[in-house]
Amino acid sequence: MRRIIVCIKQVPETDKIGIKQEKGTLIRENIENIMNPYDKNALEEALIIKDKFDAEVIVITMGPPQAVDVLKEAISMGADEGVLINDEAFSGSDTLATSKVLAAAINKIADYSIIFCGQKAIDGGTAQVGPQIAELLNLPQVTNVKDIKIKGNKLEIVKATEDGAYLLETETPILLTTTTEINNPRSPTMMGINKAYGENGNKRISILSGKDLNINPKEVGLEGSPTNIYDFCMSKKSKTSEMIEGNKAKEKASILINKLSELNYI
Amino acid sequence: MNFEFNEKQKMIIKNARDLAENYLLPGVIERDETSTFPMDGYKKLGQLGFIGLPYSSEYGGSDAGYLEYVLAVEEIAKVDASLAIAYSVATSLYGGPIADYGTEEQKKKYLPPVLSGDSLGAFNLTEPNAGSDAAGVITRAEKKGDHYLLNGLKCFSTNGPLADYFFVVASTDSEQKTRGLSGFIVEKSFPGVTIGKVDNKMGIRSAQVSEVIFNDVMVPEENLILEEGKGFFLAMKALDGGRMGVAAQALGIAEGAYELARKYLMEREQFGKPLYRNQYLSFKMAELNIKIEQAKLLLYKAACDKDAGRSYTTSAAKAKYACTNLAMEVTTEAVQMHGGNGYMREYHVERMMRDAKITQIYEGTNEIQKLIVSGGLFR
Ligand SMILES: Cc1cc2nc3c(=O)[nH]c(=O)nc-3n(C[C@H](O)[C@H](O)[C@H](O)COP(=O)(O)OP(=O)(O)OC[C@H]3O[C@@H](n4cnc5c(N)ncnc54)[C@H](O)[C@@H]3O)c2cc1C
Ligand SMILES: Cc1cc2nc3c(=O)[nH]c(=O)nc-3n(C[C@H](O)[C@H](O)[C@H](O)COP(=O)(O)OP(=O)(O)OC[C@H]3O[C@@H](n4cnc5c(N)ncnc54)[C@H](O)[C@@H]3O)c2cc1C
Q: How far is CA A44 from CA A40, A159, A189, B158, in A?
C-alpha cells in the first residue's frame, strides 16, 4: 500500500436545516458546514490501513475556499495532506462534472493504491460520484464495502447488499465506497489538531485550480452539467386511518394481513 | 482586543462537544443515580489530548493554553459536570503545581501518566479542621534522612478513590502556620496510603470524592515540590488555575441547562401557544442569555490573563464567582421553566441544579472569592 486518496465532501449539517412549511424553502441560518458523515468512514478505513502499512493518506475535496475546513479536520484525525480543488468555473457542477474534476485531480496526484469515497453525500445523496470517478479513471470499483482485509497485493472485500453480502477478491489500484458499519471513525487528537492548525499546518494543504488540472471550463460547472434542477418541493405527508371491524382477534388479524399484502407491505 | 476564536480553538470546541454529545450523554442520568464514574470517558479525554491541553508536549501535554483548556471543560460540563470536575482537578490542581514549579525529574515522572488519561491525579489540601482556612492543616511530614514520614487525614478529595497520584499539603514545621506547610507528590502505591470514607453527595454524584489517609507513609525527599515552607504558596497557585476549571464547569452547566430550557419553551404548549410566546418567559431567557455572556467574558479574560503571563489571581476569583452564581441561577430557572417535568430525573435539569451548588463551595467558597477580590481594593 503506497498512497490512499480519500474524497471528502463538505456539506451543510442537513439534520439541523429546518424547512419553512408555508413556502417549502430551507432555513439555512446558523447552519454549519461539516464533513460529510459518510466520508468519515472512508477516511477511517484509510487511516486504519495507514496505521498498519504506513501508507500515505491524502484527502481531497472540491468546493469553495472554506471547504479547506474538512481537509484540516481530516488531517487532525490523521491524514497526511489535503488538496482543495477550487475554481469559480466549477460552481454549479452536477455529479458528472464533479466526478470529472475529482478524477482529474486524482490523476495528477497519481501513484495511488486505493481511492476511498463515502457511501453517499447527506445533501445531494446520489451516490454517483464514487462510481463515476472509477469509470473515468478506468479503475475497478466496489461499492458499499463493509470489511477489507489486505493480503499482500490482493484485497479481500466484503460488499454489503440489501439481503446479504459478497466476498470478493480484488487487486489494487481500485476505488471503494464504504458503509457506516465498516468502522467507528476516530476523533481528532490534539496532536493531530496541532499538525493541522499549527505553524506548518498550511504547508500540508495544496490548492488546485481548473488550469492546474488542464480542465476545459466548458466541460465543468453549470455549462458542463447535463443535469438541471427545475424545481423542488416538499414531499406531502398524509395520514389516514382505518379501523378493522371483526368479531374475533383471529378474524381481525387475517383481514389486516390481507390488507397489508394487497398494499405490498408484506 | 479580538473576540474571535481561531481555527484551532474552534476545532477543540467541536471535538469536545462531539465527545460530550456522542460519548458522555448516553448514560449520564444512570451514572448520576448509581454514582458511577465514567472511566472510559476520562481515558478518552486523556487519549485525545484534552487533559494535557495547557502543558508542554515534553511532558505528555498538548502545547495549547488555559483558554483552550477552559473551553474544553465548558463543553464537557454542558453534558457531564462530574467528569468535568474530575478533569479539572487532574489538570489544574494535580498538574498545576508540578508543571509550574516541579523539577525536570518530577515533571517527567509525574505528569505523563495523568495527562495521558491512564491515571487520575488528586489534590489534598482540605482536612476536617482546615477548609477555608488552610492554616489549620495538621497532616505532618517529618524529615527522616532522605525521606519524609507522612501522617494525617485529608477529606473531600476529588478523584481520591480512583487516583494513583496525589498532590498533598502537609506541615513540616508545626511552629509555623501557613509558612510551615509544604507540598509533596505522593503515589497511591506508597505503603500506608489508604482511602477512607467515600462521600455520598448532593450533586456531581458520579465524581468520586473521599478521605485519603496517610499512615507512616515514606515519601522520598525528591517528591517535595520547591523547598519546605512553599506548600501554601503552591496550593494557592494551583487553586488560582483550578478556579478557572470550576468556573468553566459552572458555565457549562449553566449553558447546558439554558439550552434545554430554550428547547422546552419552544416545544411545550399551554394556553394554546408555545411557552416562549409568553413575554415573561422570553424576557427571563433574554436575561439569562445576557448573564451567560457576561460570565463567559470574565472567564475567557482570566484564561487569557494566565496565557499572556499576567497576574490572574483576582481575574480567576471574579470568573469563579460569576460563573458559579450563574450556574445556580440558570439551573434553578431551568427547572422552573420545565414545570413538573423539571423536577424529574429524565429531564436532566434537576441534576444540573444539584451539580451547580457545589461550584459555589469548592476551590474556595464564593465568600473566599470576595475575600480575594476585596483584599486588593483598599490598598
Ligand atoms: C442544494 C443543492 C443544489 C445543487 N445544485 C446543483 C445545480 O445547480 N446544478 C447541478 O448540476 N448540480 C447541483 N447539485 C448537485 C451537486 O453537484 C452534487 O451535490 C455533487 O455533484 C455531489 O453529488 P452528491 O451530493 O450526490 O454526492 P454523492 O455521489 O452522493 O457522494 C458520494 C461520495 O463522493 C464523494 N464526493 C462527492 N462530492 C464531492 C466533492 N465535492 N469533493 C470531494 N468528494 C466528493 C464523497 O466521498 C461522497 O461520499 C446540487 C446539490 C444540492 C444538494
Ligand atoms: C464535593 C467536594 C469536593 C471537594 N474536593 C476537594 C479536593 O479535591 N481537594 C481539597 O483539598 N478540598 C476539596 N474540597 C473541599 C472544599 O474546597 C472545602 O469544602 C471548601 O473550601 C470550604 O471549606 P469547609 O467545607 O471547611 O467550609 P468552612 O471553611 O467551614 O466554611 C463554612 C462557611 O463559612 C464561610 N466562611 C468561612 N470563612 C469565612 C470568612 N473568613 N468570611 C466569610 N465567610 C467565611 C464559608 O464561605 C462557608 O460558607 C471539596 C469539597 C466538596 C464538598
A: 6, 17, 14, 37
State the amino acid at position A15 in one-letter form: D
Q: Tell me: cis bond preceding B113? Omega within 30 of 0 counts.
A: no
What is the residue with the minimal CA distance to atom 27 of ligand 1?
A121
On whether any CB of chain A is under 8 Å from the CB of B47, the answer is: yes
Nearest-atom index, ligand 1, CA of A63: 41
Average pLDDT in chain A: 92
In angstroms, the CA B94 to CA B111 distance is: 9
* CATH, range B7-115: 1.10.540.10
Topology at the third CATH level for domain B121-228:
Butyryl-CoA Dehydrogenase, subunit A; domain 2 (2.40.110)
Q: How far is the CA of B365 from the centre of ligand 1 (A)?
A: 56
Tens digits of per-residue pLDDT, A103-162?
Answer: 999 999 999 999 999 999 999 899 999 999 999 999 999 999 999 999 988 999 999 999
Which residue of chain B has the CA closest to A191?
B62
CA distance A183 to A186: 9
Q: Give the distance from residue B62's alpha carbon to the nearest chain A alpha carbon, in angstroms.
A: 6
CB contact at 8 A, B244 and B319: yes
Distance CA B61, CA B227 (A): 25
- Written as nine digits, the cell of B264 is 422546552
How far apart, in Å, do the first and last CA atoms of chain A sit? Answer: 46
Q: Cα(A9) to centroid of ligand 2, in Å? A: 52
Instruction: Indicate the domain borders of chain B.
Output: 7-115, 121-228, 233-375
Q: How far is B225 from chain A (nearest CA, A)?
A: 28
- Residue among A77, A90, A63, A35 at smallest CA distance from A204: A77
Condensed to tens digits (0 to 9), the pLDDT of residues A49-88 reads 999 999 999 999 999 999 999 999 999 999 999 999 999 9
pLDDT digits (tens, 9 = 90+) for B267-279: 999 999 999 999 9
CATH 3.40.1710.10 applies to domain B233-375: no
Residue with cell string 490523476 = A107
Cβ <8 Å between B64 and A190: yes
pTM listed for this prediction: 0.90
